[in-house]
């Protein structure tokens, strides 16, 4: 039974939607040819136009893989100019003195609940950490969770969440004690044995970095799974009062100065632009 042929405009909309809804997923041109009743050469032309549009808009590219098991894949990214605009916008929002909290912290919860901000941060993480370089995204409850899922949606990678308190619904757990970098207190972190496969490559994400204790705790916890952290991303970092316990990270913002007495703060770009990758390296794919 022949498949009704769709108009090209309809087909291109559906292909674009498939790419955007399933980033880093390999689509077979042969299967698409069967689905749309179109020649693979026509579909290749469609994909080429979509790729050009994605690259022009700065939202990523489409990579073609040759061979019997080949196909096409949308790889999300973000143009440098878009990343710069995002950082400038966030600095303007965060430098509001009403955000100052006791203890040298800054209120960020509203940003972590803003879907537009989260989508943009997810795209930025996708530009910095191409999906082929890691298998799992890890965070710790609670405020790192929205950032982790923003990256998860952009990269199509699974999220695992370390808990500070054990949960019976998590099943068998691996638990470690770690030193909080900010107050040097001993705290507990747990992760289900089912969540991280042995040998997995893991991207760590958190909302705030000062002493680095939480990031180091997550890194140490991963060692119990024989997993490897490939890097860490934080929304904001601040100067540590002592020795920082974990420093292999990329930060979007940096809290440069906070004066509780005079209710003033200064925020600048983190180290994100010094670590920027304009294009992903696909040689290892």
UniProtKB/TrEMBL annotation:
Pfam families: Pribosyltran (PF00156), PuR_N (PF09182). GO terms for biological process: negative regulation of DNA-templated transcription; negative regulation of purine nucleobase metabolic process. It comes from the Bacteria. GO terms for molecular function: DNA binding. Residues 7-76 form the Bacterial purine repressor N-terminal domain. Residues 115-253 form the Phosphoribosyltransferase domain. Keywords: DNA-binding, Transcription, Transcription regulation. The keyword Acetylation does not apply. Belongs to the purine/pyrimidine phosphoribosyltransferase family. PurR subfamily. PANTHER family: HYPOXANTHINE/GUANINE PHOSPHORIBOSYLTRANSFERASE, PUR OPERON REPRESSOR. Homodimer. This is PurR: transcription regulator associated with purine metabolism. It comes from Candidatus Carbonibacillus altaicus.
């Amino acid at each position: 039974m022949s498949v009704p042929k769709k108009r090209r405009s309809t087909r291109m909309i559906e292909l674009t939607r498939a790419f955007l809804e399933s980033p880093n997923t390999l689509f077979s041109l042969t299967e698409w040819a069967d689905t749309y009743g179109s020649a693979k050469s026509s579909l290749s032309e469609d994909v080429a136009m979509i790729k050009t549009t994605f690259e022009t808009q700065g939202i990523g590219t489409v990579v073609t893989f040759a061979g019997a098991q080949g196909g096409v894949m949308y790889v999300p990214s973000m143009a440098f100019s878009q990343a710069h605009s995002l950082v400038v916008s966030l600095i303007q929002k965060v430098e509001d003195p009403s955000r100052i909290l006791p203890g040298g912290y800054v209120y960020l919860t509203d940003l972590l609940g803003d879907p537009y901000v989260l989508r943009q941060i997810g795209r930025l993480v996708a530009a910095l950490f191409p999906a082929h370089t890691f298998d799992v995204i890890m965070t710790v409850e609670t405020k790192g969770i929205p950032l982790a899922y923003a990256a998860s949606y952009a990269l199509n990678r699974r999220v695992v969440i370390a808990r500070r308190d054990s949960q019976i619904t998590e099943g068998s757990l691996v638990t470690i004690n770690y030193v909080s970098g900010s107050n040097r207190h001993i705290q507990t972190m747990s992760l289900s044995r089912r969540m991280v496969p042995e040998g997995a490559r893991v991207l760590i994400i958190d909302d705030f970095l000062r002493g680095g204790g939480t990031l180091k705790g997550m890194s140490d916890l991963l060692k119990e799974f024989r997993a490897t952290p490939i890097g860490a991303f934080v929304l904001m970092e601040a100067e540590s009062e002592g020795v920082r316990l974990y420093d292999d990270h990329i930060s979007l913002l940096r809290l440069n100065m906070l004066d509780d007495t005079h209710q003033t703060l200064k925020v600048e770009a983190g180290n994100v632009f010094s670590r920027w990758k304009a294009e992903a390296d696909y040689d290892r794919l």
